[in-house]
Amino acid sequence: MTLGALAFLALFSSLGCSSKMDPKECDKIRGEAFDLLNKAQHCNADADCKQSDWPGCAKPVSGHTLDTIKPMAENYKKGQCEEPTVKCDTPPESYCKQGLCVHRHKGTPEGAGAPAGDIIIK
After folding, report:
1. pLDDT at 44 exceeding the cut of 80
2. How far apart are CA 55 and CA 70, in angstroms?
3. CA pair distance 69, 61, nearest whole angstrom
4. Fewer CB within 10 Å of terminal CB in the chain, N or C?
């Protein structure tokens, strides 16, 4: 083999071994995943609702959306994309409310609000 052919093979093999994805492609995958998360998450029962674990903080999602996002997350990780550091609180439970997956936020217990004497209606 000639020296030029060896140099070409070395260059080609070094390029082929790198599995790091282009940052623009990483951003595209992450953006598409956020678009899916930010759509209405339809459900019929509480069992249809799950917590997302990517991208970003946990959100209530339907099982269908979770199944769609899972391969995107795998490609993102396989592509060695840099995950932005985000501080997330522990998410509340997700459940189905009126056909949509939502978080069950703890509210103020009945009677624990402001005393009636403090509320002024004019």
Report:
1. yes
2. 10
3. 10
4. C
Confidence (pLDDT) at 115: 55
Residue 21 Cα to chain centre, angstroms: 19
The C-alpha atoms of residue 86 and residue 66 are separated, in whole angstroms, by 20
- Do 43 and 96 form a contact (C-beta atoms < 8 A)? yes
Of 17, 13, 19, 104, whose CA–CA distance to 5 is shortest? 13
Mean pLDDT to the nearest integer, 63-91: 91
Q: Is this prediction's pTM over 0.70?
A: no
The answer, yes or no, to whether the previous bond of 55 is cis (omega within 30 of 0) is yes
Residue type, 103: H
User: What's the average model confidence in pLDDT over 31-51?
Assistant: 94
Name the nearest CA neighbour of 41 among 17, 58, 24.
58
Share above pLDDT 70 across residues of the chain, in percent, rounded to a whole number: 72
- Cα 35 from Cα 20, distance rounded (Å): 24
Altogether, the residues listed in the chain come to a count of: 122
Q: CA-to-CA distance for 22 and 55, rounded, in angstroms?
A: 18
